[in-house]
Amino acid sequence: MLFSYFAKMKGTTTSPPRVSNSEILWSWIGAFVGIGFVSYANVHIFEKIDLLMIVGSFGASAVLIYGAIRSPLAQPRNLLGGHILSAIVGVSAYQLLGTNLWLASAAAVATSIAVMHATKTLHPPGGATALIAVIGGEKIHQLGYLYVIFPAGGGACIMLVIALLVNNLSKHRRYPEFWV
User: I want to staple 87 with a disulfide (CB 3.0 to 4.6 A). Which of 120, 152, 171, 180 is the partner?
Assistant: First the structure.
C-alpha cells in the first residue's frame, strides 16, 4: 500500500517537446507588451492617484495567456474570473482574519481555489492574487475591495486585450479557445 502511494509520484509520461522558435517569440512579444502596458499604466497613471495597477500574480498570468494559450486555465473566463473572484476572497479573508496572517493567508488561497473550481474559472495566478490581498502590505490593505477593480480586474482586462491582439497576429496561433 505504501509502495503504490509513492509509485504515483514517478509520473506516467515523458516531458512534452520544446515549442518552436516562432512560438517562443510570440510568447515573448505578448508578455512584453502585456506587462509593459500594465506597468506603464501603474507608473504613469495609477501611482499619481495612489492606486495600483500591477501585482505579482500578473507575471504568472502572462505565462499562461501568452505562453500557453490553448490551456483551459489561460482562457478569458479563467483569467478574469480567477483574478476577480480571488481578489474578493483575499480581501474578505484579510478583513475577517487579518489579525492572524497565517490563517488569513491559508483561508484566502484555499477558498479562492474552491471558488474558482465551483465557478469554472480556475486560473492558478488567482491563488496569488488572493494571497497578495492578505500579505501585500499597507497600500494593498488600504484599497479594501477596490483591490478587486484596481489592480485585479483592470490589470487582467488590459492583459486580455493585449492577448487578443498579439496572439492572433500569427497565422499559427488562435486565442481564445473559448469565452464561457
Answer: 152
- Measure the CA–CA gap between 82 and 76, rounded to whole angstroms: 9
Percentage, residues of the chain above pLDDT 70: 100
3 state SS of 124: coil
Tell the burial category of 50 from Cβ atoms under 10 Å away from its Cβ (0-12, 13-18, 19+). exposed
Average pLDDT, the chain: 96
**92 CB neighbour count, 10 Å cutoff:** 18
- Alpha helices, H only, 98-143: 101-118, 125-135, 138-143
Instruction: Name the grid cell of 109.
Output: 488561497
Amino acid found at 149: I
d(CA 134, CA 90): 6
Residue 100 lies in a domain: yes
**Phi and psi torsions of 178, nearest 5°:** -160, 160
Domain that holds residue 94: 21-167
C-alpha to C-alpha distance for 55 and 138, rounded to whole angstroms: 14
Answer whether residue 14 is part of any domain. Answer: no
The whole-model pTM stands at: 0.95
